[in-house]
Write a structure and sequence with these properties.
The protein is α+β, with helices and mostly antiparallel strands. It contains nine helices and seven strands.
């Protein structure tokens, strides 16, 4: 049996570092041997080895200290301006280290014009190799950054589509539509005005669920309007067996929330709570601001079964909160005193 071993990013990096900077030895040795000096000289070879070693050490140290990950999140023009600056700085540091022994042993050399001509000429010479290193390193991180952005965008799009399909599947599934239409049919014979109002609410709710994915966030007040329509339609079915209370702090009305977030919780409360109770129960929705956090609570009569799991709808809700607010958002589903189930959502305002 053969075992395949793959190299880590760190191993790839050092292999490329060693091979890349060793190219100085090869290229410059060929250049001096065949085109400049006309013969191979050990002193030249040793000098080029020192160039290679200094380049490897300086580029690695400079990367660790000065090239931070946030550099690659800026605009392309700023990234490449920074790249040009880094080329100059790395080449300058390399030449300083290479010339330092001469300046220590012979300080008077600093007054020599030829010394400075050689100093700046060497910056240009070594800059050829540094610029190749910078281009490869920067291109790698730019492409990596673009790949991460593309992946994140696709993830958000998939979550939005998944939430949309799940809402159509669970929030307004055929079972709910069947019950709502049956309730409206009964109302037609009893109270035509209420039946007409129920049909309007149902159509508006359907329109909302079909269009909500167009905006990542909507005002809490707009969300609650749709939730109220949904619960009013359910009250036609349950009658006095369903009690609804909605308490909203005024400061929360214009705060942005993910569309259909509370609607998902309300449907979950009806499906897993109220419908399981012969005598029905209540749903209580509350919003408030504490510090810089928006707190939303949806309580309902009932209890959590031992075998209960979040399901696709609530899992999608968690993922949407995570993608919108990262780890600053929280979602908790638990029992509360008085045979009630409580769903709590919190995340920073703005």
């Amino acid at each position: 049996m053969s075992i395949k071993r793959t190299l880590s990013k760190s191993q790839y990096y050092w292999i490329l570092q060693v091979v890349g900077w060793s190219s100085i030895v090869f290229i410059e040795t060929i250049n001096y041997t065949y085109f400049i000096a006309g013969e191979f000289r050990w002193e030249h070879f040793q000098q080029f080895c020192s160039y290679s070693l200094v380049g490897l050490l300086v580029s690695h140290a400079y990367k660790l200290i000065f090239i931070r990950p946030e550099v690659f999140s800026k605009s392309l023009s700023r990234i490449w301006f920074r790249a040009f600056f880094d080329v100059l700085m790395i080449a300058l540091l390399m030449v300083i280290l290479l010339f330092l022994p001469y300046t220590v042993t012979e300080p008077e050399i600093l007054r020599d014009t030829e010394f400075w001509i050689g100093f700046f000429g060497q910056i240009m010479n070594l800059g050829r190799y540094v610029i190749v290193w910078i281009i490869i390193y920067y291109l790698y991180h730019i492409l990596k950054r673009n790949s991460e952005i593309t992946e994140q965008t696709l993830l958000l799009q998939n979550l939005a589509k998944s939430a949309e399909l799940e809402l159509l599947k669970t929030q307004l599934n055929p079972h709910f539509l069947f019950n709502a239409l049956n309730s409206i049919k009964a109302l037609v014979l009893i109270d035509q005005e209420k039946a007409r109002d129920a049909i309007i609410k149902l159509s508006e709710l359907l329109r909302f669920t079909l269009n909500y994915e167009k905006a990542p966030l909507i005002a809490l007040n707009d969300e609650i309007n749709e939730v109220a329509k949904y619960l009013e339609l359910e009250q036609i079915r349950f009658g006095k067996r369903l009690d609804v209370q909605i308490t909203l702090q005024e400061e929360t009305l214009d705060v942005k929330v993910p569309p259909a977030m509370i609607l998902t919780l309300a449907e979950n409360a009806i499906k897993h709570g109220i419908t399981q109770l012969p005598d029905g129960g209540g749903i209580w929705i509350e919003s408030k601001i504490r510090g810089n956090l928006l707190l939303i609570e949806v309580r309902n009569s009932g209890y959590l079964k031992d075998s209960f799991n979040l399901g696709i709808g609530l899992n999608n809700l968690q993922k949407r909160l995570q993608n919108l607010f990262s780890d600053k958002a929280s979602f908790i589903l638990d029992t509360s005193p008085g045979n009630k189930v409580i769903a709590k959502i919190s995340y920073p305002v703005n």
